[in-house]
Amino acid sequence: MTTEKKSCVKKFIVERNLPGAANLSSEELRAISKMFLQLASQMARPYTWVQSFITDDKIYCIHIAESEEKIREHSKLAKSFIPLAK
User: Fold this and answer.
1) Angle of helix 68-78 relative to helix 26-41, nearest 10 degrees?
2) Own/partner pairs, 44-47, CB within 8 angstroms, 24+ separation
3) How many domains would you assign to the chain?
4) CA torsion sign, 36 to 31 to 33 to 13?
C-alpha cells in the first residue's frame, strides 16, 4: 500500500510593471518568456508559468502553484528583470 500526498494547486495572475511593454519586439518577448520558464524550472514542483499578456506598460503572467508563497519566491527570482506590481 502506498500513501500519496495530494497537493492542491491554484492559478494566480501576477501583474508586473514594464514601461513600454507594448513596444517590445518579438525577440524581446521571447527572451522574457524564456527567462520566466527558466526561473520556474528552478523551483520545486508543482510550479508552472502558463502564459503572459502584454499591455502598454505591464505584463500579466498566469502561474499555477501551491501557494502565494511560491509565487512570491518566483517573483523574487524575477525581480531583477521585471519588478512585481501586485
Assistant:
1) 130
2) 44/70, 46/7, 46/9, 47/74
3) 1
4) positive
The pTM assigned to this predicted structure is 0.72
Residue 83 located in a structural domain: no
CATH of the domain at 41: 3.30.70.3090
Residue tagged 508586473 (cell numbers): 16
Identify whether 14 is part of a domain: yes
The 10s digit of each residue's pLDDT in 29-43 is 888 888 878 877 777
> Distance (Å, rounded) from C-alpha 76 to C-alpha 33?
16
pLDDT digit string, tens, across residues 5-18: 666 789 999 898 88
**How would residue 58 be classed by pLDDT, with cut points 50, 70 and 90?**
very high
